[in-house]
């Protein structure tokens, strides 16, 4: 029996610099992923979007490696998110249960597919947490708007919220293979079937839609807030113009009298 454990440790990992610094046996690499064989039965899979996945690693050894890659991380988290999956080889055919998979043989391409899906799952947990925070912040300002009839947020902070929401949406779209299968599955029907079943097991598509819908709600509310602030600013400018005109009229009256 083997175990796959994936950790979301940072917002992103500098794949290019890490590749140059780490001397493990590199099985596969591109601009977003590094897949290493550390020994005959231990593997590490590193993703640009801040996830590291371990195959058959003890907790102390995985912790040591996570410390090693710390300099290559952007916005390293104080606490890591994690997800794990049990793998049992020697089955007559691939069979997935809730928290484990039975496979026929321990093959590198099968390992990569399992580690990929566990990593996508923990990344979705992270994105879901970020979306929930944005929703809570948006609801807070919505409640103030309901109670007081005005927004307690500046235009600058509102722009930051909008930027944060759009950045999160873009990162999800760039990093998660939820609806498109990885290139490795295109010419391997067995691998494609395994990938599809793993996605279904981890409910990746449903969780992705939930996150996307949440971000859509946040974006819609923020756009409404922006319109309200623009209206408030335009009204304020109108009053400034009226005040300036009034001052000018008063000056003319004073000049006529005196």
Q: Care to describe what's here?
A:
- This protein is of the alpha+beta class.
- It contains six helices and eight strands; from the N terminus they run E-H-E-E-E-E-H-E-E-E-H-H-H-H.
Give the key terms.
8-stranded mixed β-sheet; 22% strand; alpha+beta; single chain; 258 residues; elongated; 6 helices
Quickly count the helices: 6
Mean pLDDT across every amino acid position? 84
User: In total, how many beta strands?
Assistant: 8
- Shape, principal axes of CA atoms: elongated
Give the class from helix and strand content and strand pairing.
alpha+beta
Helix content: 55-70%
Please indicate the percent range of residues in DSSP E strands (runs of 2 or more).
15-25%
The domain count comes to: 1
- Main sheet summary: 8 strands, mixed
Q: Give the terminus-to-terminus CA distance.
A: 100 Å
Walk across the major sheet and give the strand order: 2-3-4-5-1-6-8-7
């Amino acid at each position: 029996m083997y175990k796959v454990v994936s950790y979301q440790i940072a917002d992103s990992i500098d794949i290019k610099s890490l590749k140059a610094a780490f001397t493990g046996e590199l099985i596969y690499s591109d601009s977003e992923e590094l897949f290493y064989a550390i020994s005959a039965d231990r593997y590490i899979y590193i993703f640009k979007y801040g996830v590291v996945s371990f195959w058959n690693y003890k907790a102390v050894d995985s912790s040591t490696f996570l410390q090693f890659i710390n300099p290559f991380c952007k916005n390293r988290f104080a606490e890591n998110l994690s997800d794990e999956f049990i793998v049992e080889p020697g089955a007559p055919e691939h069979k997935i249960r809730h928290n484990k998979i039975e496979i026929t043989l321990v093959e590198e391409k099968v390992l990569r597919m399992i580690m990929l899906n566990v990593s996508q799952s923990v990344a979705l947990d992270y994105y879901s947490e970020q979306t929930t925070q944005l929703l809570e912040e948006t609801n807070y300002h919505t409640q103030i708007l309901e109670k007081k009839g005005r927004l307690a947020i500046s235009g600058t902070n509102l722009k930051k919220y909008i930027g944060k929401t759009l950045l999160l949406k873009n990162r999800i779209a760039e990093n998660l293979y939820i609806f498109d299968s990885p290139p490795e599955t295109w010419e391997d029907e067995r691998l494609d079937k395994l990938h599809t079943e793993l996605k279904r097991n981890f409910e990746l598509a449903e969780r992705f839609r939930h996150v996307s819908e949440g971000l859509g709600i946040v974006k819609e509310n923020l756009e409404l807030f922006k319109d309200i602030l623009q209206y408030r600013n335009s009204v304020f400018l109108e009053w400034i113009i009226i005040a300036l005109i009034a001052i000018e009229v008063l000056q003319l009256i004073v000049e006529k009298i005196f």
